[in-house]
Design brief:
Layout (H helix, E strand, L loop, with lengths): L9 H8 L14 H7 L4 H25 L5 H13 L1 H10 L7 H15 L3 H13 L18 H6 L4 H15 L16 H25 L3 H5 L3 H4 L2 H7 L13 H4 L7 H7 L5 H6 L8 H8 L10 H15 L31
Helix pairs in contact: 3-4, 5-6, 9-10
InterPro entries: FA_desaturase_dom, Fatty_acid_desaturase, Rhizopine-oxygenase-like
Protein name: Fatty acid desaturase
GO cellular component, one term: membrane
Length: 356
Amino acid sequence: MDRNYSLTSDYGRDAVARGVAEPSWFRPKVNPQDIRALMQKSDGPALRDTLIWLGAMVLLAWVGVALWPSWWAVPVWLAYGVLYGSASDSRWHECGHRTAFKTGWMNDVVYQIASFMIMRNPVVWRASHVRHHTDTIIVGRDPEIVAMRPPDLVKVSLKFLGVNDTIESLGRMGLHASGRLHPEEAMYVRDADQGRVFWVARIWVVIYGFVIAAALWAGSILPLMVVGLPRVYGAWHHVLTGLLQHLGLAENVTDHRLNTRTVLMNPVSRFIYLNMNYHLEHHMFTMVPYYNLPKLHELIRHDVPTADPSIIAAYRRLLPVLWKQLRYHEAVIVPELPEGAMPYRSEVEHLRPYAV
């Protein structure tokens, strides 16, 4: 029987009734002083990475405009697209947690810029992400589950093109600009914040209106190549990495080791992704800044599953499970724990018969 992942469904109410909602998550046994040290924020690493990110975008845009409409501009715009349509996803995420910079207003400025690029209303998505961390992959409670069971593999594949996601984001922007929330958003956005949701959307509509007007006046899509279109064609990297966060793992559990995955990645992907490949570590200790996640990984590795050694290796393990879920919805990956690790909670026993 298919699950209903809508936040307005009975599944969410059932999760509350069964005590699965807002669970007490498992935490590895570590020295609290070590965690407090890793939670210390600094402006230096985030300033460096932000200046490289925005500086590279300015340079690539300048070169892309200078080379337009030559074919030599194609690789330049492709690189610009990844920084616009994928790197903005991780910047939105980290600054939304307010952990990237020590200085609060720096987090807020980058958060607003990145939210605009990725077309995620900063008020709605901050509330959404709080719920995601509170009820990670709890059916009917988590608004950020990217693939349901059985998985729609066509829809998942189309995410790499960015078209469907962008259309949905534009629809939500129009909805918010008209002074309305989606029914699911109304379940986690505070009443006091709704006015800000609507005004942000209206400002964005005006900005996009100017960009479209500039494109029409110039008789060229070049203005949209700088603002807007990279959200579509540059989304592939954040989809490539983001799908690995939770897909193929358990639903409705209270141990992040069963529903969240860490994948070791190359330095370029880690820069674009801001170390969110250490995703298990991030969910366990949300307030640790992204630049300290590799250290956190080493600190708790005795108590968590071994990380997938690469993006390719992670997909080699994931794809057969997604294929099997088309016929056998309960198929799931149950990661093996290292010897001596704290055992999974008793809830793992109902997963083992379906482990792939």
